[in-house]
Structure formats: C-alpha cells, structure tokens
Amino acid sequence: MCIDGAAFARAPLTEAMHLLDWEMVRRAVKQDSSCAAFHAGWVVRDGRAFLFAGEGASGKSGLCLKAMMRGFRCGAEDVTFLAGNRLVPFARAIQLRRDDPLLDGIHSARLFEGCDGRVCVEVRPEEAAVETSAATSTVVVLDPTADGPARTLSPLEGLQRLLGLCHRLDRTGQTLFDTIASLAAAGRVLVASPAAALALLDPPEV
C-alpha cells in the first residue's frame, strides 16, 4: 500500500484497509487544530454518554456492543473525536475476536470479515449516536486486572491515565487536554474492569 507515493505497508487487503483507516484518522486530527482524538469508544442513551478508554484488547469493543444491546447508541468503538467539548460520532463496525461468545447472539447478516482474523459487526444507522456533549460524560479507563466496583480516579491520576492513551494518534491537543482536565477535576474519570464498567450502564434503582 502506498500513501503520497511512498510505500506504507505490505499487508493483506483487510489489514491494509485497517492501516489506511488509521492513517486517515491521524491526518484528520493533525490538520484540524479544533479537533482532538484519543483511544476510546463511547455510547450514549438519553443524553448520558459513557467513554470506555483503554489500550487494544482492553474490552472497548465488547462493551460498546453490550451497551447497544441495552439500548445505547454507539458513537465510536475505538477512536473518540472531540470538537470543542462535543463528542463527534465515528461509529464504524465493531471488531471482535472470532471466538468471542458475543457473536453467538448476532444475526449472520450483520457480520463480515475484519482484519487480524477478527469478525466485524455492522452498526446500523438507527444504532449510531449523534453529536453529544462531552461535559457531562463519564470516562471509564478499562483495566482488566481491576477488582471490585469502579473506582473514581484523582484528578491528577485521571489526567495522566487518559493522556497516556493519545499516543497512537500523534497528538494530544489543547482541546483534548482541557476536556480531560475538566472531567478529571469533576470526578468523572473512573477505572474499572470491563465487568464493573458494564454495571455502570444500568445502576440499580434506589
């Protein structure tokens, strides 16, 4: 595959498309100073947004799909875009490992081949989110080793953990920094295992 006339990678078609996807994301963020992005998925229901932040294989995609099964709309499953303090939808197909039990409940018409041997689940238009405020969202940093319920991070730790997830896009950006700092200061950045994060979506009624 070539970009701007230079060799970028040699890979099977599905992997090449994935690499091209990331390159377009990187360039879009780099060229637009009003836009920032970091490694997270997000869902929203009734104006209430949850961001699942984490490295690859931390459980973001599975959580987004489980949230959709609970009536949430998907804004993104891997890359979250911010424009000012707004979450900009970037809902692509959700990629899962071929042996993920979540696939058992998905109609085959919604499935297609992804990269790295994964299977993609189509996100239908009625399941996709619209632009949403980030100011009142809850950010969950996924940690598969975490025990117990979700824990609120201190403002400093929340800021450090989230800024550490910006490296893949070669840009932090003042917009992203300000938004993350505001959420961290408000105690809206948590750390949780995927199971504990899922429990946050439907808290028990009091």
Task: Report on the architecture of this protein.
This protein is an alpha+beta fold and 206 residues long. The protein has one domain (9-91, 130-201). Helix content is 28%, strand content 27%. It has helices at residues 13-31, 60-69, 155-163, 174-185, 194-201, and strands at residues 2-3, 6-7, 35-45, 48-53, 73-76, 79-83, 86-88, 94-96, 111-113, 119-121, 132-133, 138-142, 151-152, 189-192. Strands 3, 4, 5, 6, 7, 11, 12, 13 and 14 form a 9-stranded mixed β-sheet that branches. It has a 3-stranded antiparallel β-sheet with strand order 8-10-9. It has a two-stranded antiparallel ribbon with strand order 1-2. Helix 3 packs antiparallel against helix 4. The chain is globular. The chain starts with a strand and ends in a 5-residue tail after the last helix.
Write the layout of secondary structure elements.
Layout: E1 2-3, E2 6-7, H1 13-31, E3 35-45, E4 48-53, H2 60-69, E5 73-76, E6 79-83, E7 86-88, E8 94-96, E9 111-113, E10 119-121, E11 132-133, E12 138-142, E13 151-152, H3 155-163, H4 174-185, E14 189-192, H5 194-201
Parallel strand pairs: 4-12, 12-14
Antiparallel strand pairs: 1-2, 3-4, 3-5, 3-6, 6-7, 7-11, 8-10, 9-10, 13-14
Helix pairs in contact: 2-5, 3-4
Organism: Blastochloris tepida
Protein name: HPr kinase/phosphorylase C-terminal domain-containing protein
InterPro entries: P-loop_NTPase (IPR027417)
